[in-house]
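Q: I have 192 residues here and want to know how they pack in 3D. Can you give me a structure?
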Amino acid sequence: MRVSLAAFAALLLWSCGKTSPTTTATGEKMLVEHAKITQFYAAEPMLPKGTKGNLCYGVEHVTRLEMTPSVEELWPAPARCFEIAPKQKTTYTLTAYGDDGSKDTKTVEVTVGAAAPRVHDLSVNAIQVHPGEMVRVCFKVDNAKNVKASPGKLDRSVNCVTDNPKKTTTYTITAYGGNQQEDSGTVTVKVQ
């Protein structure tokens, strides 16, 4: 039995599950592409509490999309990202439907971790001093497990750093939170 090259290719593609042979009204054989999710991922699979991230997808041969939990309107696209803001660990399920009745489903999990640390409201008693004069840099910090400051002496009971600089100095306050996160702020004092 002889098999044409076109028939062999159609059979091979059909056996891989990517296409199905179908017959047109005129009896002509053609291949139908099945719905396929080419990509589905969280750009940030671990989000700090209270922040937003991106969920991205790409599909081929799709006429309709559904996602649980529902997040926003979806449409078939080869590559698209949109914003999410889960309050707790969430598993997103994307289902793509094709004209031929086929469907493809993928899931992504996004975890929510500790809130990100934040250094804010930095203030300094003077932005210009004489050599050896006292400088006091104070700040506020949120969601920090640890705080470091340099140079100078840090007093965590009042969140201030004191120093007596001899030359122009930049003071850096760094807050460290959970999940290897950090935030920092700087103030420069000019010494004349």
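Q: Anything worth noting?
A: The two ends are 97 Å apart (CA to CA). The first strand starts at residue 19 and ends at 23.
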